[in-house]
Amino acid sequence: MDELTGAIIVSYMMVLFNKMKCGSPERDHGICFVNPTLILPSTRKGKSKNIDDASRGLADRLSKRKGNDIIFMPYNPGRHWVLGVLDMKSDNCYYLDSLSSSNFNMQLKQIVDSAMVMYATQSGSNKRVKLNWVNVTCPVQPGATECGYYMLRFMKEIVEEGIEVLVKDNIGDGKVEYTTDDIDEIREEWSEFVTSFIYR
Questions:
Q1: Could you give the CA distance from residue 72 to residue 76 in angstroms, rounded to a whole number?
Q2: What are residue 26's DSSP bridge partners?
Q3: Residue 147: CB partners within 8 Å, gap ≥ 6?
Q4: If you count DSSP H runs as helices and E runs as strands, how many of each does the chain have, helices first?
Q5: Which residue in 199, 196, 200 sits closest to 11, CA to CA?
Q6: 149 vs 30, 38, 80, 183, CA distance in Å?
Q7: Does residue 107 sit in helix, strand or coil?
């Protein structure tokens, strides 16, 4: 299984966006997406510059979210995809890592925490936001390259089930790892979308 690129991640987010907007109204759970390139680390910049730029970009994205309170933040700090899901109503940030790491990616945490401070300042709020970071129990990838597929599957389940699937800590419906059919479903949806996009 090949690693997924940022372009594939973004195009699958378009699949999910279309599902929400063109599907049944109960599917639109107030979700918006952050393009991973907005917060990806750059090898050309120092670490603090990366965090500042990414935080500023994320704060700008938050200010344009148009009432959407669930923010998907796919993040790849280097050869591994993880997912941050920011719930603006509860001030929770859910962290999903298919390697089942018990630690948060500290660079992502710094980016999001700083972005929330910037966002509060930009929006004129005096509210001091202290995010509660929640490490979500989720299916664990069996190999070294499935992280992108797992992250996309996490997003799909949240789109279909709503934020409750995170609140109840039930991503994967109790599965230890996703089945081949679970991953193939992601591939099929993506390939159908890309094919329809090419042959319009």
A1: 13
A2: none
A3: 3, 4, 80, 81, 82, 98, 99, 141
A4: 6, 5
A5: 196
A6: 23, 20, 11, 6
A7: helix
Look at residues 125, 91, 94, 88 and name the one whose alpha carbon lies nearest to residue 108. Answer: 94
Residue keyed to tokens 């070294």: 144
Q: What is the pLDDT of residue 49?
A: 63
Q: What is the pLDDT of residue 24?
A: 60
Mean pLDDT per 10-residue interval, the chain, length 200 residues: 88 91 67 91 62 92 88 92 95 93 88 93 79 94 94 95 88 92 95 85
Tokens of 83: 């997912």
What is the model's pLDDT at position 50?
79
Buried/exposed 30-59: b ≥16 CB within 10 Å, e otherwise:
bbbbbebebbbbeeeeeeeebbbbbbbbbb
Query: Who's near 149: CB < 8 A, 6+ residues apart?
Result: 1, 4, 141, 178, 183, 186, 187
> Residue 134 and residue 145: Cα distance in Å, rounded?
24
Q: What amino acid is encoded at 184 in this protein? A: D
What is the DSSP code string of 33-74?
A: E--GGGTPPPTTS-HHHHHHHHHHHHHHHHHTSTT--EEEEE
The structure tokens 């279309």 sit at 18
Give the amino acid at 10. V
Please give the backbone phi and psi of residue 178, each rounded to the nearest 5 degrees, phi first: -75, 150
